[in-house]
TrEMBL record, chain A:
The keyword Zinc does not apply. Belongs to the binding-protein-dependent transport system permease family. It comes from the Bacteria. It is a multi-pass membrane protein. Residues 1-11 have a biased composition (Basic and acidic residues). Keywords: Cell membrane, Membrane, Transmembrane, Transmembrane helix, Transport. Its main location: membrane. Residues 1-26 are annotated as: Disordered. This is Sugar ABC transporter permease. The chain crosses the membrane at residues 36-64, 100-121, 133-153, 182-207, 228-250, 290-312. Pfam families: BPD_transp_1 (PF00528).
From TrEMBL, chain B:
PROSITE patterns: PROKAR_LIPOPROTEIN. This is Sugar ABC transporter substrate-binding protein. Pfam families: SBP_bac_1. Gene3D superfamilies: Periplasmic binding protein-like II. It comes from Myceligenerans indicum. InterPro entries: Bact_solute-bd_prot1, SBP.
UniProtKB/TrEMBL annotation, chain C:
The keyword Cell membrane applies. Keywords: Cell membrane, Membrane, Transmembrane, Transmembrane helix, Transport. It is found in: Cell membrane. It comes from Myceligenerans indicum. This is Carbohydrate ABC transporter permease. SUPFAM superfamilies: MetI-like (SSF161098). Residues 75-264 form the ABC transmembrane type-1 domain. Belongs to the binding-protein-dependent transport system permease family. PANTHER family: ABC TRANSPORTER PERMEASE PROTEIN MG189-RELATED, ABC TRANSPORTER PERMEASE PROTEIN MG189-RELATED-RELATED.
Length: 318, 436, 279
């Protein structure tokens, strides 16, 4: 298998000289072309499927965001009308605000919790394998069961959480998922709990790239645990950190199913988020054109944040 | 137009797929060929969850028996709101069945405006005008779907618990105040922990459906003050502990079937579909065995109470329409099937499996009350057969959007996050701002 | 080795284990509830307050789920789809990732941002155009549709690319001098070194596909094609839901994933750092 892959594509298939030859003898332009071709052959198998199945529908989404499409009928061109409607749409503003609220807490909490777990469970600890599996369990447990159990735990009258808090504090206890003020914190807690094992997995993979001898050298130089983490682990972890940060950010802005099963956006609109608003507009009220414009806004927010992270990461790399 | 875009993208890409050998799966979706080998016609019908919803098979079989040359083929969709999601996708892609159920009345106008429904005013014209919900299906004088089933909301009560608390059974004269009083007395009178006089399920319809129907207000009038007395009363009942609080109902995901069925509540208002469920659960042992009865839903005031009046309640008809993309050769058969399903023969077939058809006549009532386990008293029969049932989701272009806003109002008020008046003002402002 | 007294160290260890065990118990609580509910009768599942011990234990649910539901078919379909998607995602994803991480071509970064950008678009907002397209190929209502939906996502490319970037370029340079082609470097050097990332990607893709609900809901109609999530949802009717059976099915559905995770487990902690490659 291995050799055939190499042979097929190596010099023969592309009709190019073997790379062993010093590249400087050939003109730079053809070298560039060759590099580009090699690069593209790597990307192409995935890109072909990705372009047809994802890119085309996504591009159409941008088109639909400027139409009055209701899924069945004609998509009549309305220009930027949907976007100007967004400016005056208070529910959209609420959803936008709630989404930022969720993201602002969920992103740092999840990164901290998952990195902490990964560092802890990356050690040669008896039973680490078991605890790693446990930490991943929230992600594989049925989301319905998660919603049910957490809702019961949060139940203001019968829930163990309030009974526990009640033994320490008097006065009025939080209403959690049935209170406008506490529903979002409740959802953030459950969101962090659910995803920490998932991102722990990604951090664990990243931690394997940290060379042990670097740690050893730092230890010999007298660096403490904290210094080693800060000066050895974190820099080596930067690509993984970038990946996790971008993914957590995007997933936080897109949060949907967890909130749907836990609070359905309520009470009132206190946990209504953008993805749910898109669903409401698109599939409950059949304004898919308008829903598309909300999706585009969500996309632009994520892209803006990602580009900032991307540039920051590049600068640190340089 | 949209479909054309995607289809042309599709044809371009399908060539590539065929080359790589991925195009192997044959699609069994979409309408099958009209002409069968024996020259009969086959129409496809979208329904949901056949294992626990036998009504589609029942109608298909009953129709085929009368018309042996027409076969109704069922195509299964998931239950709940997923039915709409999956059917919507099929309608958008042009792969939906010939006949489909318009399950949620609030989507009817969208389906019609989207051109997915065939004009079947001729079928509607031949149906009995007494068919529940039929008249409200007309849009600009044309009808695009006909009701075959209509559930109405009733009061279910547990006779044993009433006896235990020494409270008189409902006699058909109850207003909501009588109901609230009875709930309080029952809660005090039943000497068991965690047993309540009443149970109010978490849905917005449990409050808003009655309020809309009994106040005579209009949903898209922009004024929701008609909701206030209904919410005040339910909040008072929740505060004095005569029913579980909304917080408990939602966080513990309480089910009305287990609350009433395992005698945790002496009364519940629920749609007539629960008759069949309760009978089945008592037979299977999932519910306790106890005597129960039906009564008309409590009324706003005395003008509609008593057995010489017609009580007002709510309930949406479940309707059936024809896919506008149906093959020309099958239209006649499809229309005939609709006429059957919404007519007396369909009603009789549905009643036999304990389902409330849109057309309730004496035959239907006899059939339902002939089922084992259904209460036999006069009031139960009166409650089942006599009512003015107004839709929860009146047909209109803004119904879906308004119901979303009112759903938010419901959770805000019942969780006691917002005072009733503030929530109503807020909802009115949102309707003015966002709808229309 | 250490100057600290071992007694103190041991106390610390014990405290750590106590804390971790407590945390584990807390984390597993919802799963425990799933198991408990799967042994109840239907009307006992949701109560206030929660009943933690089923009375009576109803083991029948685990038999009924096979009789009333078509668990065998559901499991087979879900397994087919998950394995196919995971295979495609891992192979094409890691292959493309090499292109993004270790080769240079014009527009590389822009293309990569485009990949990430699509992650930011909620699937629901473009699922209808996508469904129309796949329907027009005649692939709706086939398992192929689900495979296509999930197999070429941007997630795998992104994950693998970031991992490859943490592998020193000097390694690739050395290999080039040794006469390996780029494809050879990917196959002989990158893949073996990226086992932890490949394992994570495999598990995450597998779990995501296994638990996907909306995709199968839109695409699959025929009973013979249902996946486990779609099948279990069949126990939720309009007016009724068989919660106990759903939970029994959910418990059964988690087991294969837990198995995959346990098997994949040891590969997480086996990377560059332990295979002895020096950068």
């Amino acid at each position: 298998m291995a050799t055939s892959v190499v042979d097929d594509h190596d010099s023969g298939a592309l009709g190019l000289p073997h790379p062993v030859q010093p590249p400087r003898r050939r003109p730079r332009a053809s070298l560039k072309l060759r590099n580009a071709l090699v690069g593209w052959t790597f990307v192409l198998p995935n890109f072909a499927g990705f372009a047809v199945l994802t890119l085309i529908p996504v591009f159409l989404l941008f088109y639909y965001s400027m139409t009055s499409w209701n899924i069945f009928g004609n998509a009549d061109w309305v220009g930027l009308e949907n976007y100007s409607r967004l400016i005056g749409d208070k529910s959209f503003h609420v959803a936008l605000g709630n989404t930022f609220y969720y993201a602002a807490f969920h992103i740092p909490l999840t990164i901290a919790a998952s990195l902490g777990l990964a560092l802890l469970l990356n050690q040669k600890l008896r039973g680490a394998a078991f605890f790693r599996t446990v930490a991943f369990f929230p992600y594989i447990t049925s989301i319905v069961a998660i919603a049910v159990v957490w809702n019961m735990l949060f139940s203001p009258e019968y829930g163990p959480i309030n009974q526990f808090i009640g033994t320490f504090v008097g006065g009025e206890l939080p209403g959690w998922t049935v209170s406008k003020d506490w529903a979002m914190p409740a959802v953030i807690i459950v969101g962090t709990w659910r995803y920490m094992g998932y991102y722990m997995l990604l951090f664990l993979a990243g931690l394997q790239t940290v060379p042990a001898e670097l740690h050893e050298a730092a230890r010999i130089d007298g660096a403490g645990v904290w210094q080693r983490f800060w000066n050895v682990t974190l820099p080596c972890l930067r690509p993984t950190m970038f990946f996790v940060t971008v993914m957590v950010t995007i997933e936080s802005f897109k949060v949907f199913d967890l909130i749907l099963v836990m609070t359905e956006g309520g009470p009132g609109q206190s946990t209504l988020v953008l993805s749910q608003y898109i669903w409401q507009k698109g599939f409950e009220q059949f304004e898919l054109g308008y829903a598309s414009s909300v999706a585009v806004v969500l996309f632009l927010i994520c892209i803006a944040v990602t580009v900032v992270q991307f540039l920051y990461n590049k600068r640190r790399d340089a | 137009m949209n479909r054309k875009i995607m289809t042309s993208v599709g044809t371009a890409a399908v060539a590539a797929l065929a080359l790589t050998g991925c195009g192997g799966g044959d699609s069994s979706s979409g309408s099958s060929d009209a002409e069968q080998a024996d020259g009969g016609v086959s129409i496809s019908l979208a329904g949901w969850d056949f294992a626990s919803t036998p009504e589609f098979q029942t109608l298909a079989d009953a129709y085929h028996e009368q018309n042996p040359d027409v076969t109704v083929e069922l195509k299964e969709y998931p239950a709940g709101n997923d039915y709409d999601t999956a059917l919507t996708a099929d309608l958008a892609a042009g792969t939906a069945p010939d006949v489909f159920i318009v399950k949620n009345l609030k989507n009817y106008v969208t389906f019609e405006e989207g051109g997915t429904l065939l004009d079947i005013s001729d079928v509607a014209g031949e149906l009995d005008p007494a068919t529940g919900g039929l008249s409200s299906m007309a849009v600009d004088g044309k009808t695009y779907a006909v009701p075959y089933r209509q559930d109405s909301w009733l009061l279910y009560y547990n006779k044993a618990l009433f006896d235990e608390a020494g409270v008189d059974y409902p006699d058909g004269s109850w207003t909501w105040d009588d109901y609230a009083d009875a709930a309080a007395t029952l809660t005090d009178g039943i000497d068991k922990k965690d047993v309540y006089g009443a149970y109010l399920h978490g849905w917005q319809s449990t409050v808003q459906g009655f309020a809309l129907a009994q106040s005579g207000a209009s949903l898209d009038g922009g004024d929701f003050s008609y909701l206030a007395p209904y919410y005040e009363r339910q909040l008072a009942m929740q505060d004095d502990g005569s029913q579980p609080s909304y917080a408990t109902v939602t966080t513990n995901e309480l089910a009305y079937q287990s609350q009433f069925g395992t005698q945790k509540a002496a009364m519940v208002t629920m749609g007539s579909w629960y008759i069949g469920t309760l009978v089945a659960e008592q037979a299977s042992g999932d519910a306790d065995t106890f005597e129960w009865g039906l009564a008309p839903a409590p009324q706003a005031d005395e003008s509609t109470t008593g057995m010489d009046n017609t009580p007002v309640t709510f309930g949406d008809p479940t309707t059936m329409g024809i896919n506008a993309g149906i093959d020309e050769s099958k239209v006649a058969a499809a229309k005939d099937f609709l006429k059957f399903a919404a007519g007396p023969d369909g009603a009789a077939a549905l009643a036999e499996i304990g389902i409330t058809p849109a057309l309730i006549d004496d035959t239907v009532a006899d059939t339902v009350f002939g089922l084992d386990g259904v209460p036999q008293d006069d009031l139960s029969r009166f409650a089942y057969t006599t009512h003015e049932t107004l839709p929860e989701n009146p047909v209109g272009p803004n119904t879906a959007a308004i119901q979303t806003i009112l759903g938010d109002l419901h959770s805000a008020v019942m969780s006691e996050s917002d005072p009733v008046d503030d929530a109503i003002a807020d909802a009115q402002e949102r309707v003015a701002n966002e709808v229309g | 080795m250490t100057t600290r007294p071992t007694a103190l160290r041991n106390t610390g260890r014990i405290l750590l284990y106590v804390a971790m065990t407590a945390a584990a118990a807390g984390i597993l609580l919802p799963f425990a509830w799933m198991v408990i509910s799967s042994l109840k009768t239907n009307n006992q599942v949701f109560t206030a307050p929660i009943e933690w011990i089923p009375d009576p234990f109803r083991w029948r649910n685990y038999l009924d789920i096979w009789i009333k539901g078509d668990m065998f078919t559901w499991l087979r379909n879900t397994m087919t789809v998950s394995v196919a998607v995971t295979f495609l995602q891992v192979t094409t994803g890691s292959f493309a990732a090499y292109g993004f991480a270790k080769t240079r071509f014009p527009g590389r970064d822009a293309l990569f941002l485009l990949y990430i950008g699509t992650i930011a678009v909620p699937w629901a907002s473009y699922m209808i155009p996508q469904f129309q397209m796949i329907s027009s190929w005649g692939l709706a209502n086939t398992l192929y549709s689900i495979m296509l939906l999930q197999a070429f996502g941007a997630f795998g490319v992104f994950l693998m690319k970031q991992y490859y970037e943490s592998i020193p370029d000097s390694l690739c340079e050395a290999a080039r001098i040794d006469g390996l082609s780029e494809y050879g470097i990917w196959w002989r050097i990158m893949l073996p070194l990226s086992v932890p990332a490949l394992t994570s990607l495999t598990i995450i893709t597998f779990v995501t596909t296994w638990n996907d609900y909306l995709g199968p809901l839109i695409y699959l109609r025929d009973r013979e094609l249902w996946t486990i999530q779609l099948g279990l949802q069949r126990f939720v009717g309009d007016y009724n839901a068989e919660h106990a059976l759903i939970m029994a099915g959910s418990v059964l559905s988690v087991l294969p994933i837990a198995l995959v995770f346990l098997l994949g487990q040891r590969y997480f902690v086996q990377g560059i750092a332990t295979t002895g490659v020096k950068g």
